[in-house]
Write a structure and sequence with these properties.
α3 runs parallel beside α4, α4 packs across α5 and α7 packs across α8. A hairpin with a 2-residue loop joins β6 and β7. The chain is globular, with a radius of gyration of 20 Å. Strands 1, 2, 3, 4, 5, 8, 9, 10, 11 and 12 form a ten-stranded mixed beta sheet that branches. By secondary structure, the protein is of the alpha/beta class. It binds ligand PBG. The site of ligand PBG has 11 residues, from α6.
Length: 323
């Protein structure tokens, strides 16, 4: 059967019919809001390359988390920026580190907010790389202990889930092992499994002061040209015990999101990263695009591609617009 018996437009005429047949919806339950906390900061500062996003002090971060939770967003992912950086990135795991202090305060004040810790060293190392450096090279296996310690310290401080974003081989297994050894076998791991070496992280590195001081991240993050390799990365992380696998960035890698979902049928997260946020903000500020419509279309496309959840700086605005 074809036209004139079939008319695709019949189901598009009426708004309520369109609502009935809509295949993809973005719920607040699907969204995770990334937030930055900075040690030694007196008052929050707006991030110049990410209008509407802030670097928070601990008390202001707690207030912001409360506001976000009340708006209907149930999960946040936290990034810490320490006052002092060193070669090992020790600020990432010390007991009274900025992220540990912030997590403890948030857990105490808003116990129901799902607290996810980003596990990485780049915000904490003087060289800005995501692991241990020797003679200008990133040493994979020496980094694993440091990352595992970081994950454990976050969970001890109150994290409900940890999300390693460093891209070292074997880190999911190391983190699973240390958590299990310390009676945290119930804590899930969301691994940044297919994380690409991307120019879309530019604004984040301003916000987190985490740019590499030499070289770049292409010896550990993935080549944007590779798709089969993403399947191998995800397969290995799942074998090491990852509960949720992430594809990052989101928009330029929707094909990867779809492939990962169809291949593994496990919970998939996509990170709508800083550069994706800033591009929309800049165009909207110029009046070139309709921000609300662009954001809804963006988030919808990421879910339609197969993501179960989205990490996005738009989470809080989206919640406000939905009200
Ligand atoms: C840390 C990390 C990065 C992001 C999340 N975790 C930066 C990077 O790998 O350089 C990027 C997030 C964003 O751009 O929004 N390794």
């Amino acid at each position: 059967m074809t036209f004139p018996i079939i008319r695709m437009r019949r189901l598009r005429e009426n708004a309520h019919v369109r609502d009935l047949v809509r295949e993809t919806k973005v719920d607040l339950d699907d969204l995770i809001m990334p937030l930055f906390v900075v040690e030694g900061l007196k008052r929050k500062e707006e991030i110049p390359s990410m209008p509407g996003q802030f670097r928070f002090s601990v008390p202001e971060l707690v207030d912001e988390c409360k506001r976000i939770y009340d708006s209907g967003i149930k999960a946040v992912i936290l990034f810490g920026i320490p006052e002092h950086k060193d070669k090992k990135g020790s600020g990432a795991w010390i007991e009274n580190g900025i992220i540990q202090k912030a997590m403890a305060q948030i857990k105490k004040t808003i116990p129901d907010l799902l607290l996810i810790g980003d596990v990485c060293l780049c915000e904490y190392t003087s060289h800005g790389h995501c692991g241990w450096i020797e003679n200008g090279r990133l040493i994979n296996d020496a980094s694993l202990d440091l990352l595992a310690k970081t994950a454990l310290s976050q969970v001890e401080a109150g994290a409900d889930m940890v999300a390693p974003s460093d891209m070292m081989d074997g880190r999911v297994g190391s983190i699973r092992q240390i958590l299990d050894k310390n009676s945290y076998s119930h804590i899930p791991i969301m691994s940044y499994a297919a994380k690409y070496s991307s120019a879309f992280y530019g604004p984040f590195r301003d916000a987190a002061e985490s740019s590499p001081q030499f070289g770049d991240r292409s010896s550990y993050q993935m080549d944007p040209a590779n798709a089969d390799e993403a399947v191998r990365e995800v397969e290995l992380d799942l074998a090491e015990g990852a509960d949720i696998v992430m594809v990052k960035p989101a928009l330029p890698y929707l094909d990867i999101v779809r492939t990962v979902k169809e291949t593994f049928r496990v919970p998939v997260a996509a990170y709508n990263v800083s550069g994706e946020y800033s591009l929309i903000k800049a165009a909207a500020a110029n009046g070139w695009v309709d921000e609300k419509r662009i954001v809804l279309e963006t988030l919808t496309s990421i879910k339609r591609a197969g993501a179960d959840m989205i990490l996005t700086y738009f989470a809080s605005d989206y919640a406000a617009w939905k009200k």
